[in-house]
Structures are given as C-alpha cells and as structure tokens.
Predict the 3D structure of the following.
Amino acid sequence: MQIEKEQFILLADCINEVRAFQNDISPEELENFFFCRLEGAFKSKNNRTIAYIMNALYLNNYINESWQAVIEKHQLVLSPMKEGYVKANDLSSANNNYPKGAEIIDDYIKQLKKH
C-alpha cells in the first residue's frame, strides 16, 4: 500500500496537530520526506511522537519496516535535544513509549484508511 496525495494532506494535518516537528509541514514537504527528496531536514520536537506515527503507518502497511533506517540514512530528521540527525536507535528506543496525543494519531490513522 502506498500513501496517496489526499492522504498526505490528512497526514500533514495529523503531524501538525500533535506538534511532532518544530514547524508545521505542508503535504508537499511530507511527500518529499517519504520519497527521500526533502531539501534539508525536519527538526524533531518529540521523537516519541514521530516514532509512534511512523510505526502506525508501518503497522497499517503504508511504509516498510525499515523506516527507522531510512530516516537515519537520508538524514531526514534533526535531533530535538542535541546537534545532528536522529539515528535509527533514537527512534527504536522512543518507539516503546506511548506519546502525548497518541489518541489523536490513532484517529487520523483510522481516517487515513478510509481514503
């Protein structure tokens, strides 16, 4: 399964509502993120939230299981607390925690499946 244009709009709304990144992102920027064409990187506000969103997308077959390695390899996310990029192990350790706003993310994932 792949994320369609309309779904990028919904997913960008979700990411912006839960404040996963320091700045709001557009659906076009998000599409570039997923296709590893992002110019620069998004600055993480909360790795736990990002990990929860990405894992939910993986569990619903929108992205593949190596999403953490892809984020690290392509340097798509800047660390919220230190200099440098988020590493795969930063996301895997954050993935074990239930973030604030998880219910909001779950609702958006349900909506995503309807589109």
Observations:
- The beta strands are 42-43, 77-78.
- The chain has a mean pLDDT of 92.
